[in-house]
Design goal:
CATH architecture of the largest domain in chain A: Orthogonal Bundle
Strand content of chain A: under 5%
Radius of gyration of chain A: 20 Å
Number of domains of chain A: 2
Largest interface: A-B, 41 and 41 residues
Number of helices of chain A: 10
Mean pLDDT of chain A: 90
Shape of chain A: globular
Number of strands of chain A: 0
Structural class of chain A: mainly alpha
CATH topology of the largest domain in chain A: Tetracycline Repressor, domain 2
CATH class of the largest domain in chain A: Mainly Alpha
Helix content of chain A: 55-70%
Distance between the termini of chain A: 61 Å
Largest sheet of chain A: none
Oligomer: homodimer
DNA sequence: TACCCCATCTTACCATCGTCAAGATCGGTC
DNA sequence: GACCGATCTTGACGATGGTAAGATGGGGTA
C-alpha cells in the first residue's frame, strides 16, 4: 500500500515544505502586503523552485485560502479566549470581543485583509469553511446576551448581532486602512485608536 | 488601412480617450471585478493599443485612482442628496445616510470595493484627495446632530460619528462580500437585506 | 493654402507572474 | 540492491504592467 504519511512525518528534501511555505507566505504578506504575496516570491523565500508550491497547493488561490484558514483559526481562538475571560456580563463580553476583533486586525493587518478578500479565496476548501464557521461561532458566543425583558423577534435578534459585527468590523477595516488616522490625530493629546475604540464600543446598545 | 469599425469610426486620434477609458474601466470593474480590470483589457474594450492608456494615465494605479475618484464624487453626491432630502431630524438624517451608503455599495459593488482598496490607489492624486474629502464632508453632515442636553467631549463626539461610519461601512462591506447571505437566508420569509439594514440602523444610538 | 510641430497612438520589447508538462532526484519498501 | 512513487526542478507558454522608439495626423502658423 502507498505510504501516505502526511506532513507530521519525516521531512523530505527540504523539510515540511507546506508549513514552510505558509510561514513564509505570512511573513511576505505582513511585510509587502497582498500585492507582494506571489507564488514565486514564496518559493524564493523558502529556497525552492518556483513550481514547487504547486505540488502541495494546487494554485495561488489554494495557498491564499489555506493561509486565510490559518488566520481564521487564530482569529477564532483569540475571540473565544477574550470572550471567555470576560465573564458572564453580556456587555463586558461584547466589549472584550470588540477589543479582540480590532486587536487581531491591528496585529495582523495583512492576514486580516486577506481573510476578507473574497475574490482571492476558495470557500469550497474544507479547511477555510471550517475555520470560518468556527470563528463565526466565537462571534455568536460574544453577541449572545440573555433574553431581555421583552422578547425579540428573529429579525431583531439578527440585527443585534449583525450590528455588533458590522460595528467592530467596520472600525477594524477603516482603522487598518488608515481611514481614521486623520480623525485620531485631531483628538486631544492622550487619545489614541484604543481610546477611540473604547468610546465607540460604549455607544453600542448590545447587552443593555 | 482596412480597419473595421464595429460601432463608430476609429480615427488615429480617439478624441476623448481618457473618458472612454474610464467608462470602459468601470464597465469591466462591475462585470469582472477588480481582478479583471487590467490596463490591457481596458485598452481592448476601447479599441486602442495596450500602451495607449499610459499616455493619459501614467500607470495602472493612476487609472484606478481616477476611477475611484469618480466613484467618490458620485458617492458624495448620493450621500448629500439623501441627507438633504431627509429634513432636519438628526435621527432621520442618520438613517437616510445609512441607506444611501449601503445602497451605493450594493449598486456599484466593484466601484465601492475599489474605493476602499487602498493599496491599489494613489492618495497623492489631487482628484482622489478632493473627492474623498468631499464625500467625508457629506458623512459629517449626516452625523452632525444638535448639541445634546449634556455637552460631549471631543472624544465622545468623534466616537459618535466614527461609530455611525463603522456601522454602515461594516454592514456594506459584509453585505456585498456575501458574509451576511447565510444570516439573511435564515430570516423569516419576507425579510431581506433592506429590512435587516433598517433593523441594524434602529440599534444605532446616534441622534437620540 | 501649404507646411510643420508635437501630442497622440502604435509597435516592439522586457521582466514578472501563474500554470502546465516533462524530467530529475531521492526516500521507503520489497 | 533495485524498483516505485512522491517530491522537486527545469523549461516553456500566455498574460500582465511598464518603457522606448517610431508612426500618424490634427491644428496652429506662415
Amino acid at each position: 500500500m502507498p505510504s501516505r504519511e502526511p506532513k507530521s512525518s519525516r521531512p523530505y528534501h527540504h523539510g515540511d515544505l507546506p508549513a514552510a511555505l505558509l510561514s513564509a507566505a505570512e511573513e511576505i504578506l505582513e511585510r509587502d502586503g497582498i500585492q507582494g504575496l506571489t507564488l514565486r516570491a514564496t518559493a524564493r523565500a523558502v529556497g525552492v523552485s518556483h513550481a514547487a508550491p504547486a505540488g502541495h497547493f494546487g494554485d495561488l488561490t489554494s495557498l491564499l485560502s489555506e493561509l486565510a484558514a490559518l488566520g481564521y483559526r487564530r482569529f477564532g481562538v483569540a475571540l473565544m479566549e477574550a470572550v471567555d475571560a470576560a465573564g458572564g456580563n453580556p456587555r463586558v463580553r461584547m466589549k472584550a470581543m470588540g477589543r479582540a476583533y480590532v486587536g487581531f486586525a491591528r496585529k495582523h493587518p495583512g492576514l486580516f485583509a486577506l481573510m476578507y478578500r473574497s475574490e482571492r479565496l476558495d470557500f469550497a476548501r474544507p479547511a477555510l469553511r471550517d475555520a470560518i464557521a468556527n470563528a463565526r461561532g466565537a462571534l455568536r458566543a460574544a453577541a449572545s446576551a440573555r433574553a431581555p425583558a421583552e422578547p425579540l423577534t428573529p429579525l431583531q435578534m439578527a440585527a443585534q448581532s449583525t450590528a455588533l459585527w458590522a460595528l467592530v468590523h467596520g472600525f477594524a477595516v477603516l482603522l487598518i486602512d488608515g481611514r481614521l488616522s486623520g480623525l485620531i490625530a485631531s483628538l486631544p493629546e492622550e487619545e489614541s485608536a484604543d481610546t477611540l475604540l473604547e468610546a465607540v464600543l460604549a455607544t453600542a446598545r448590545v447587552g443593555e
